[in-house]
Design goal:
Blueprint (H helix, E strand, L loop, with lengths): L1 E5 L4 H12 L3 E6 L13 E4 L5 H11 L3 E4 L6 H6 L1 H21 L4 E7 L22 H20 L2 E7 L1 E3 L17 H9 L6 E4 L11 E2 L1 E3 H16 L5 E5 L5 E2 H12 L5 E4 L8 E2 L4 H7 L8 H14 L7
Parallel strand pairs: 1-2, 1-4, 2-3, 4-5, 5-6, 6-11, 7-10, 8-13, 9-14
Antiparallel strand pairs: 9-12
Helix pairs in contact: 1-7, 2-4, 4-5, 6-8, 6-10, 8-10
Amino acid sequence: MNVLVTGGAGYIGSHVVLELLRLGYRVVTLDDLSRGHRAAVAGGVFVEGNCGDGALVRDLVERYDITAAVHLAADSQVGESMARPDKYCGNNLGNGINLLTALVQAGVRQFILSSTAAVYGEPEYTPIDEEHPTRPVNVYGGTKLMLEQILGWYERAFGLRYVSLRYFNAAGADPEGDIGEDHDPETHLIPLVMQAAMGRREKVVIYGTDYPTPDGTCLRDYIHVTDLAAAHVLALEALQEGGPPAVYNLGNERGHSVREVVETVRRVTGRDFPVEEGPRRAGDPAVLVASSRKIRRELGWRPRYGDLEQIVRTAWEWHRRHPAGYAG
């Protein structure tokens, strides 16, 4: 099976490409390298370009006999999305629509969307299941939800079958240590704490210590990036077997606090670093924990790296071997 992966040079995308290649899929990666890294792509065919370029997408489908697409190309920083709604609507939504249109015009009818728990907004209850109301509180989550809704219309009009995967907090790195997390700027907690452990960051700031949680800091559901990649393959297999359109949450169904992450990094790395307590950030919910029962039940997905220390150990192996990221 020939699969087009957009955004395949990014953090999650590169792990999806690697998982597909390991399982014998033929992969074409399309990435404009605005945030991704060419060195992160493990193999297959790489094309530098924008997924919103309909002519390019149609050409790739024809040239490489593409039968399915996995769409991960997107801007994903919450704060930036609020300051630049034009950018996020143009890229996440506009380019996403252009991609969908080009794919159906070229005859592709299987589509996996990289979505997000940000579609839910402030949680009314936890663990959050797929029936939870979707009320995004930022532009990033809003654009992902709108693209999910558009997928429904494309399914009705063109027979495009799809699976939307709503990630919680992606973390960790491929256990072999060859690819991992390298963002600029970095906004994710675990790599930020890793940078402090390596002396590349002056300190770690904990934003909010008065939440209604056991230690006063936010609880988040961390899901290993390799487990995310495996879910994409299961979703593709389900579509190949004629499965219906579906939406699934992806998380480990357990919450870990900011303090717990900091202490786990200290224990795994054997290094200490300054930690500073700061005020809450606007819009940070106290608890975000997934219910992943639906994908476990329907697709048989089982996380292999469900323990926080396992996740941190794989992240540390990547950062230890690549202290400057892909640039090093």
